[in-house]
Amino acid sequence: MQKKVLVVHDLSGVGKVALTVTLPILATLGFESCVLPTALLSTHTGGLGANTYLDLTEEMKKIIAHWKSLDLKFDAIYTGYLGNPKQIDLVIDTIDTMTASQCPVIIDPVMADSGKLYRGFQPDYPAKMRKLCEKATVIIPNLTEAALLLEEPFQTGPYTKDYIEDLLKRLGQLGPKKIILTGVYFDEFEIGAASFDVETNRINYALDKKMIGHYFGTGDIFASIVTGSVLSGKDIHTASEIAVRFIHDAISKTLQQKQDPKFGVCFETELPKLLKIII
């Protein structure tokens, strides 16, 4: 039976981020996506001018109420951008009341990067996100988000394996069974992710060539591929390796086609390869 995945994320009219990358990736891998949108933006927030922003918290309440009246249940939940603490509460309630037994919950705690919270988030937001991460099967923070979840100062890289592995193990103490830490690098040549399975105590690294520049939406692509991979039966270490390689190839295609990276990366033509790898 086709798995029904609840995707909780924002929607940008222009820019390949959030829902505009998650939905095609999950569809390619054979999953039915049910969408709970958290915000509507004219464009994503990176380098495209003064975007519009519509908070959908009140609409989320109505959507969830309708779903409950239908007695809907989801086989998995993947969450990305949540615009305020009220939205986190709504997601926690949804996890508690509208999920099937043993439902995988994949949390990308979208809230910060480069050592600081994203625009619009208050200092108390990480504590609320920590409560959501306690519900997770898998969390996928970057280095800044990991520091915020652990209530400690952000450290710049390059990193050491001792530091990364200490972060992973302490994140595991928050409650999730599996952790994938993104933006990990030990030198200026490679970058990728570190994964930790609490139950097996295994740590793995997935690194690839570091590409010059900033590429919007790659974090959402990474989390979406991890979600699809895990739901397809892959372990988190394999899922991380697949996601890192896919993003490297998508960035390479973007550079080859001389596309403006502000609008996202050329991931679409790589989807058939992803299907062959995962299914």
From TrEMBL:
Residues 32-258 form the Pyridoxamine kinase/Phosphomethylpyrimidine kinase domain. Its EC number is 2.7.1.35. Pfam families: Phos_pyr_kin (PF08543). GO terms for cellular component: cytosol. GO terms for biological process: pyridoxal 5'-phosphate salvage. GO terms for molecular function: ATP binding; pyridoxal kinase activity. Keywords: ATP-binding, Kinase, Nucleotide-binding, Transferase. It comes from the Bacteria. NCBIfam families: PRK07105.1. This is pyridoxal kinase. The lineage of its organism: Bacteria, Bacillati, Bacillota, Bacilli, Lactobacillales.
